[in-house]
Amino acid sequence: MEIKIDPEVEVALALPVNQILTYSLRGVDTGGRSDAHMLGMRVLVPLSGRQATAYIINILREKVACPEGREEKKYKIRSILRFLDKGALFHSNMLPFFKWISDYYHYPLGLVIKSALPGGLTQKTVSVIKRGEAPWDEKKLAGLIQEMPDWLQRVCQLGKLSFAESRSLLKESKNRTLLTKLEELGLVQIGQEQVGDSVREKNEICYHLLGLALDIDSLQAELSPETSQIEEFRQSLLSSITGKMLFSEAKTLYYLSYLAHKNNSTDVPRRDLLRLYPGAAKALVYLEERGLVERFQRRVFRNPFGDTLPFFPRIEELSPEQEEACSEIKKTIEGEIFAPFLLYGITGSGKTEVYLRSAEEAIARGRDVLVLVPEIALATQLEAYFVSRFGDLVVLQHSGLKASEKYDQWSLALSGRAKIVIGARSAIFAPLKNVGLILVDEEHDGGFKQDDSFRYNARDLAVLRAKYHSATVVLGSATPSVTSFYHAKSGKYRLLTMKNRIGSRTLPRVRVIDLNTRDKGKKKKGIFQPPLQTALKEVLAQGKQSILLMNRRGFSAIVLCRDCGEIVSCKRCNVSLTLHRHSKKLVCHYCGFSLPEATVCRSCGGANIVPVGFGTERVEEEVQKLLPEARVARLDSDTAGNREHFLKILQKMRDGQIDVLIGTQMIAKGHHFPGVVLVGVVWADGGMSLPDFRAAEKTYQLISQVTGRAGRGDSPGKVFIQTMRPDHYAIAFARNHDYQAFYEHEISLRQNPLFPPFVRLIAFHIRGENEGQVKNSAGNIANFCRRENRDKKLQVDILGPAPAPIDRIKDSYRWQVLIKGSCYEKLHTLCHRVESAGKELLLAKITMIIDVDPENLM
Ligand code: ADP
Ligand code: ZN
Known about the structure:
With about 850 residues, this protein is α/β, with parallel strands linked by helices. Helix content is about 35%, strand content about 20%.
């Protein structure tokens, strides 16, 4: 039997639930929207007594075959409450992409969509504690409690509490018990209130002249608000209008014309007008009534670029290698086919220009461009290159922007006014409709992988998104990830190689300094070995610049008690604290916990706490001692706190106003400072001993990247690497700039035992406050996996359970189970099985996080 049903929609909830729910449009004002326009819209839906935000992902309007019991189900389907926006928040061509992601990363579809939207766009209901209907009765209260708590007094006085306070009160069961009783007496009420979006479009009120043919050019370009001048203006107006003209009205029109002339736009924001002449407020009302000016609203887009971005002119002549790369890429852009490229170009080979030319090509063909950069704190130079070349077509998406700016930039992309989006990993979801080119700069960077909640890798998704759009994707790097290079060699990606630096500049000479042969007898001479010290002095004397890399912020590596030898560790994590001398604190880098610098040892009570090892602050101090006259700057996540400051330091570095720049990995990437002739890696070994199969790869990349900052101008560069492991292959190959050899060595190591790219990994992170329960839950999961693996012959390897290398963070114990296998489907089958059995395997209050293709196993 076929029946006609009310139009229904399928929605994904912006909540951590996996089901797709169906709601009806019965009785809903759809504003006459067509089905296609409703896809991708945000709606408010009823959900077990509350309201929740959801996204429309499907519209069921056809007659459907009526299965048994359909009538009954239909009765139960509720209507959505309302639409939350004027239009869709994503283009419908993104849906298959979102669905794939949700499947692959085992993450709810609604939350995938939510992550793709700018923050602050989730409406929800929250509980608030309010005064009840019954009159306040102290006697009734006395029977319940001896003393009236503060908050209850405030409920009585104010009528209700804030969302935040209500939430925290409702968390505690003793309050809930009391509240239930109070509710029964009618004294209080726990109500539901809706909180709206925290970001909005910004509009401003503007005015323009109407019906007055003023000769604007004859007005003075210079403002001269003298009474006589305005009086003259008033007289001239009187001749062209009927009726009188007050002085204040004439003055308002005078400023209006002046601003219009100055901004070269007929529309003048009210705010600007009032700033010049506050009296305009009243006059404008009269002028509008008389039909001399018109008032209207226009949307304004908050501009995140500031004026700190440098300008880079277009380069007219390409190098032969650039020419070759560009022409390959151009072919696939023209062909509008899916084509993944790996652009392997050494530092200084001119990759940026290849990106820019390819973008020109795509834009010329009417297609959009997505540019992904690793999150290097707040900005990259690439941004400035794109803005220089494409101006208004470019928008930004990264964490350096304010929420309101992000929202505006995103809206410009959604509406099609912007054609190029540059951003950190989340920009992979940018709402560009017709993506023809995706560029991923520094594709090897671990920053493309999000490390909490939604653990996607934007570099991998770039390839996938390109496939959905039949687009070209270019992964660029001087030190490609082992996985990407493997794909390039096996033909999955097309390899483009650029082996030479622009202008036949040479790669810098690298010298490795063995820290083991330090003169042990003598008192330690600080952290720079003599050759590096000499070089630093020479470079300063020549008026050139140096960069010092120290991949750890703070002053020390650890702090310990000189009396008993105990390491001062965080109270909530199993990690040592780090001394931060500027803020005079011992800080935990994992949870932010801190103690004052002058602390006593928790184990013996001694007051002799000393810093051991070093971080960027200590390097800074030593540079100042060694080169007192040098201008020194430090860039790490402590100092790069805001984008303004970060951009300013980069600018000063380019202008030669800084002699020595010290920093963590954020100074290693991408920057082009022609004045830098010396790079020192203060301590290369930091990452090498980590229990991570990518430890050597990361070390190689970091050293090569920072090495690449030297000698990019006219003078050749020099590099010093200080290390305790001068023979380690990552260092030996980096010294010779031999990526290929590094790759061959590394790939052979990954074959036994098998690691990516030969297998894929999924990690289950098991966490909770009770150590025993975490351990047991991890054991259950591992056992379950082994049983399934055997029964279903999945040929998956199961590793663990084992405690994570850092086995406690923020009072939460951490265990892991790792599964690996070469067949992607089988791995995911097992993962789905674990997911659905999850509740039974995990003890109470223990949580499990699924991490597909994990980057960070700490
Ligand atoms: P990479 O990103 O590969 O390390 P860049 O793109 O930063 O290298 O280029 C290095 C420098 O060479 C930049 O200053 C850039 O402006 C310049 N450059 C690039 N291509 C050319 C060219 N064809 N002719 C002259 N200079 C170029
Ligand atoms: Zn901590």
